[in-house]
Each structure stands twice: as C-alpha cells, then as structure tokens.
Design a protein that fits this description.
Layout (H helix, E strand, L loop, with lengths): L1 H26 L1 H4 L6 H14 L10 H24 L3 H12 L6 H8 L3 H26 L7 H34 L7 H4 L1 H24 L4 H28 L11 H4 L8 H14 L3 H11 L5 H25 L1
Helix pairs in contact: 1-10, 1-15, 3-8, 3-10, 4-5, 4-7, 5-11, 5-15, 6-7, 6-13, 7-8, 7-13, 10-15, 11-13, 11-15, 14-15
Length: about 325
Amino acid sequence: MAKEQMATVKKLFDAHALWLSMLIGAVGYRLFIPLKPVLPWLIFFMLFFTFCKINPLDLRLHRWHWVVLALQMALSVGVYYALMALTGNQVLAQGLMLCFIMPTATAAPIIAGKLGGSIQNLTSFTLLSNFATAIVVPVFFPIVYPAADMTFWEASWLILRRVSPLLLGPFFSAWLLRLGYKWRTKKEYVLSTRMAVVPFYLWVASIVVLTSVVTQTVLSTVHEQLTTMLWLLLASFFACLFQFGAGKLIGYKLPAPSKGRDYQDVLINPAAAPKTMAGVSSITAGQAFGQKNTSLGVWMAQTYLHPLAALGAAAYIIWQNLFNSVQLAVAARKK
C-alpha cells in the first residue's frame, strides 16, 4: 500500500514538477541564490547522464534534424539583426536571439519519452544542437557584444574555451565510461532505470536555482527596464509557441523511421514503438526545437552578453515549462 502511495505521489510530482520548481525558486529566491555557482555542474551532469543512456555508435541523424538545426541558427542571426534594425534595443535583440540560439535541453529526451516521442532520435539531435552551439556561439557572441578590452579572436577563444568543455566534456566522459565498461566486462553498458531519470530531476533542481536568479534580476531592474522586460516576456512567449509548433510540423512532414534492424528505440523507449512514425517524430522534433537548455542560456547571457539579455532566456523558462506541464498533464490524463 505504501509503495502504491509513493508511486502515486511520484506521478503527481513528475506531472507538476516544472511549475512547482519555478514557484519554489521565485518564493525562496534568497535561499537559492548562493547556489548559482552550481549551475555549470548541473548542466554538465544533466548532459552526462543523458549521453550515458545512448551508445554513440547507435545514433542516427535524419532529415528533420538538419532542417530544425538550420532553422534554429538562421532565426538566431535573423532575429537579432532584424530587431536591431527596427528598434535599436540591444537588450531586446540579444534576449530574443537567446530564445532561438539556446541548444536543446538535456532533459528534453526525458520529457519526449514521457510523451511518447523517440528518446534516441532526440538524443541524436541534442548532441547535434549542443555541438553546433559550441561552434557558433564563440563566433557570433563577440560580434553581437564586443568585449571592450579584447580582440574578436581573443573573445572567441575565451568563450570556446569555457563553453566547449561544458558541452563536449559530458559526451566524451560518457563515451569513455561505455568503452571502459565494455573492455572490463565484455558487455555493453546499460544505464539503470533509476539512474535514467536523474537528468529530469537535475533539470528540476536547475530550474529552482535559475528562477531564483531571474527573480533577483527582475526585482533589481524592474524600474529601469520595465518596458524592455514586458517586450521580452511577450516576444519569448511567441518564440516558444513558434518553435514548439514549427518543430512538430517539421517532424510530422519529415518523419524518422521508428522501426528497423538498426533502430534501437524500442529497447530505450517502448512507448514510442506502437505509434506512427509521423506521430513519434512530431513529438520528438517539437521538443527538439522548443525545449531549450535555458540554464545554459542564462549562464551564457550573464557571462558574455548584456546582463539584462538573460531575461529573454529567463522568460522562456516560464513559457516552456508551462507548455511542458500542460503536455505532461494531458499525456498523464490519457494514460
């Protein structure tokens, strides 16, 4: 009986964890602000546990991966220059640019799995998106916000040196773990079911810390940048809806195979196997394009851009988590 009650509580928490974590971070922001230095480690381990689930040799890239990535990068650059030309507001332009350039969240495969998407295909895109970000950001950010005491190449190298280990380090660490395990035991490494959900809870913890940082930033700048904040709140809302919607449409039109000899998704996420290829890809691509690594976005903005540009990623936290909360609640109700 106790186990059934615990399982019920866990299901309720999983369905409502996102908005609860935001509420906790906002209300108790003074308590969680000191944990801000922990954010890079949360990002690292979220990626590490996600990559441990998948053998890199089994990953496949499909047409929708490249279409979503190209659209993501094109919109990042286009939105920035369009807003600078129309408004001249650097904070607004950088804040909305962040809403598009942020890579796919490390917890996205977990959410996609709960919704019936393809964990394997989304993990493939998470790798692709994070690799692309590690390459594009060091080139683009010094152009967007030049450092006063650095040349373009010095600033690019500084960002590359700091961002790349955070994104690429977990991938190679997970791969070395798999290789070492296979060399020692002659078996393929399989992440346990209990450990497989760790990225989701690490993400929830990062949202608590991020929300506390955002709350402090908003309270300290609300009088100075009220108009810009309102515009960023509105713009990030439409950016969130657009990316989730566009991703779902792209995945539906360019479905990836959900069965075949070289396709292991049935072992990783059996819930995706009985569904149609278009339906699975629609869910997967929607999460790939819409669910962003906002913790990385806030950190990059506060480190390399105008500090207030982080409000774009901060506002996106609210909208994507509300959107995911609704999706998880609907999926739980259907089950």
